[in-house]
Amino acid sequence: MEDAGRQAHWENVYTTKGENEVSWFQQSPAPSLELIVQAGATRTPAIIDIGGGASRLVDNLIEQGFEDVTVLDLSGAALAAAKSRLGADAERVSWIVADATTWEPGRAYDIWHDRAAFHFLTEASDRAAYIARLERALKIGGHAIIATFAPDGPEKCSGLPVARYDSASLGRTLGATFKLVHTQRHEHATPWDSRQNFQFSVFRREG
Ligand SMILES: C[S@@+](CC[C@H](N)C(=O)[O-])C[C@H]1O[C@@H](n2cnc3c(N)ncnc32)[C@H](O)[C@@H]1O
User: Fold this and answer.
1) Whose CA is nearest to atom 8 of ligand 1?
2) Residue 28 DSSP class
3) Are strands 156-157 and 138-149 parallel, antiparallel or unpaired?
4) Residue 53 CA: which ligand 1 atom is closest?
């Protein structure tokens, strides 16, 4: 999908639907939080949530004392919703409105988190552009936590086709620089109580 069409799609979603009217809403982003805590166990990590949207992950990270948190999304409306929910705490977060396939990272992070953004990249050229940014923005020894629909998950998300992965196929897509260190399936319950199978994969950047 063209960048402009992609952005228009997501702005429309976030300006017409409430927080719990989207299938990916989670009251508590527990699997992501657990994996971030594990990956950043002994230090104060710099974390970026790619395609973070209006997710409550950022609220939880601030509440748990993480001090260096960035949320990137191509929808300004999504980030505005998250900022408004956070109130004064929004100033403790860096917010970036950008497309993850064209963004120019200005710094490096210890943890790259992506729940349900990468799987929208169904064209090889978009995946390559995303991975080039991942390689630039993730420190050596840092962790990429990427959650996509699993091979037996839905074929579409928000009306758009997705690419589904298990940890092996995602690892092949990312390339040898990224070593798989953990994988787990997660059954997500949508706000209307249907089930979606996700695969969470954690990779360490080796070089
Ligand atoms: C299914 S939602 C998931 C949102 C959030 N990660 C969560 O778990 O609640 C996908 C998000 O990815 C964002 N997105 C999709 N394609 C993107 C891209 N190429 N660059 C940046 N964000 C993107 C959308 O705007 C949307 O907020």
Assistant:
1) 115
2) S
3) unpaired
4) 27
Contact 12, 80 (CB under 8 A): no
Take residue 178 and report the two structure tokens written for it.
Answer: 């990224």
> For residue 51, how far is its CA from the centre of ligand 1 (angstroms)?
3
- Whose C-alpha lies nearest to ligand 1, atom 27? 53
Distance CA 52, CA 32 (A): 12
User: Which residue from 89, 29, 88 is spatially nearest to 53, judged by alpha carbons?
Assistant: 29
Question: What is the per-residue pLDDT for 56?
Answer: 97
Atom of ligand 1 nearest to the CA of 55: 9
The token pair that represents 78 in the structure block? 């999504």
Residue in 115, 18, 29, 44 with CA at minimum distance from that of residue 73:
115
Which residue is associated with the tokens 């710099």?
A: 46
- What separation in Å is there between the alpha carbon of 175 and the centre of ligand 1? 22
**What domains appear along the chain, each with residue ranges and CATH number?**
3-17+28-205 (3.40.50.150)
Mean pLDDT computed over 123-142: 97
Burial of 80 (0-12, 13-18, 19+ CB in 10 A): middle
Probe ligand 1: pick from 10, 35, 79, max atoms within 8 Å of CB? 10
Q: How far apart are CA 130 and CA 154, in angstroms?
A: 22
pLDDT tens profile 33-43: 999 999 986 66
Structure tokens at 89: 């705490």
Q: 0.85 exceeded by the pTM?
A: yes
